[in-house]
Amino acid sequence: MKIFVYSYRKFDEEPFFQAIAEEFGAKLGVCSDAPTMENACLAEGYDYISIITTRIDADLVTRFYELGIKMISTRTIGYDHIDMEQAKRLGVKVSNATYSPYCVADYALMLMLMCVRKMKFIMSKAAIQDFSLPGNIGKELPRMTVGIIGTGKIGETVIHYLAGIGCRILAYDLYEKESVKQYARYVSLDELYRESDLISLHIPASSEDYHMISEDSIRKMKDQVILVNTARGSLIDSEALIRNLENGKIGAAGLDVVENEFGLYYYDKKREAMDNRELAILKSFPNVIVTPHMAFYTNEAVRDMVYSSIKSCYLDSEGKENPWLVGK
To answer: Which of the two ends of the chain, N or C, has the fewest CB atoms closer than 10 A to its terminal CB?
Structure first.
């Protein structure tokens, strides 16, 4: 079994890749760069490729197909960065990764608390030795109604955390879970928007959910609502978010993901002009916390992602059932 690994990171992934590849008898080729039409040729002679959240469009899927790649394995839960229709058309399999829900759930809770307690504003003042109180006053999370959109493993874990804190919790998902109902009440989206002081997103990106947080849905929300997104940037219409931060309808936002982050996050851009206008504006607000898609980033999660990717390729090579196969 031969796997070519793109976006290979020596500083954190390498020890896991080497140990897990040896465990499954995999031969690895590696490249620290993201896959492109120019470097796709490096995967020639390999059966599988392993990637992260870099855009794999129809042309790139086709190129890998021509090189004989059987499956594209992404070391991420989400796979919306891959042209699934083209992969299915050509018979190129796609698999994703799984990891403990605690990493993202912890991060979401952190962003909630930072927004509720105005931590960005407090820290920016403290950095210039302004230790005054005006503008710093926050709220208490246990007294808030929190709406959780998406009750998969991560959303359910966040609900468990919030139940321990003492929040009133509303939940929305197309598929309700009995294990959630003891902590939260499932409601319609409109009711969740109407009743929540804070809303946290935990659903995958899809064409149906594109810009679910829009001018229309924001209009239904409480004044000064807090939005937290550790899922996918495309769930929120950035322009609508900016307008409603400016007019005060939205009180704060904690964003680990933003629209059009491909080619930006995970790269050193400090010597370059910001080429994402919405991100530049969002970063300027004192009540908006923006982090570069870091919620997943723990030792445990990195190991799980590498393991999922290699074992997925191994299972496919052995003709065995593959739990990470998507878009079947």
So the answer is: C
